[in-house]
Amino acid sequence: MKWVNKFCRETWIEVNLNALEKNLRAIRRHIPKKTKIMAVVKANAYGHGSVGVARHALKAGASALAVAILEEAIVLRKAGITAPILVLGFTPLKCVKEAAVWNVQLSAFQVEWVKEAQKILEKAGSSKLLGIHINVDTGMGRLGVRLQDELLAIVEALTTSRSLIWKGIFTHFSTADEPDTALTRLQHNLFIRLLRFLEQEGFQLPTVHMSNTAAAIAFPEFSADMVRIGIGIYGLYPSEHIKQLDLVTLIPVLSLKARLSYVKVMLTEPLTISYGATYIANLGEVIATVPIGYADGYSRALSNRGFVLHRGRRVPIAGRVTMDQLMVSLGERKGKQGDEVVIYGRQNKAEITVDEVAEMLDTINYEVVATLSHRIPRLFIKDGRVVEVSHYMGPVKKIRKISKKKRRKNKRKKNRNAGMTKRIEVEE
Ligand SMILES: *Cc1c(COP(=O)(O)O)cnc(C)c1O
């Protein structure tokens, strides 16, 4: 990876866009043809890098995007993404105008909120329109309208408003990833009953959506107009159960890698490693330092427990994970400064999966990737080439500015062998 030479700390994430495309295609094939895909890119696209993922997911067949908070949507808009974006979380009224300005759709579930939002926009001027998806709580118990009467009041407010546009109605499953399907079916029935009620009241339904990745895989018949796919895009299964169903093949998109920053043979006392001196090396043991720590989202709970891959084999973490660095024991084996290690992903025939790390940490794969911090640069790779880089600190070495003449020449060349030239973009 030549790009890594531009970073002053050689730790990076590789996002495999070919895998991302395959995952989207695999899910696409599994759900009804008419169902659209909303790519869920909240939390920096589950740690993968939201702008790069959003851009490529849209290219690979997603029709819309979802985020958790308005600011995440604005980041995408500022990067030039024009597809519909829905904010899934609660947005306070003070931010409603901003949502309209950026043409970002919001979720609503309270009639007072809807009426206030309408007032705010009308005061701001007639050009400000805001798309709204109604969130219906059928058993998630997080956000959403629960009562039929209140749902009706919201719909009436939306359909008579000049500033709000009723764009969608959705619910969210709480156990779609589990073998017991009873609650998911109950939630589905409740939702369908409410939708029928609205139709009987004479309303024409906008986009209906309910399924996350687990439901899209386990209940493709619930897909409706759109499915909201998060974890599946990233090639991870929502649960072991969903994986065992073996209905859709997903390929992990993310790899986490680094280059050893120091290698030493322990020849002198003291032989202690890291804070707390919880690891004592043997005389002659080879200890290597990896430039990643808990501030990067590599959990401190992996101290003396986790592994990385070095020269195609697992080497154990020695001592505590520190904020920015950790040590591994190479045992009696050789290694040198600059050697590539894989923290999550494959190296030769060896692999460390996000799933196994999640299990070690007694959590879920979602958390392991979503907590990878902004400090790590993301390289987006297609057909073995880096096509986009996102690095919030930016590279120290400036990317060579391409002259107009050269750009034209490149464009001609690009047209000649369409899709073969690489496009490098650096996000600020
Ligand atoms: C996060 C989220 C999703 C995506 O869930 P996955 O399990 O990652 O597919 C869908 N809908 C809502 C409301 C969410 O919060």
Automatic annotation (TrEMBL):
Its cofactor is pyridoxal 5'-phosphate. Substrate binds at R142, M323. It comes from the Bacteria. The active site is at K42, Y275. The modification N6-(pyridoxal phosphate)lysine is found at K42. Its EC number is 5.1.1.1. It catalyses: L-alanine = D-alanine. It is an enzyme of class 5 (isomerase). One of its GO terms (molecular function) is alanine racemase activity. Residues 253-381 form the Alanine racemase C-terminal domain. Belongs to the alanine racemase family. PANTHER family: ALANINE RACEMASE (PTHR30511), ALANINE RACEMASE, CATABOLIC-RELATED (PTHR30511:SF0). NCBIfam families: alr. Catalyzes the interconversion of L-alanine and D-alanine. May also act on other amino acids. This is Alanine racemase. The lineage of its organism: Bacteria, Bacillati, Bacillota, Bacilli, Bacillales.
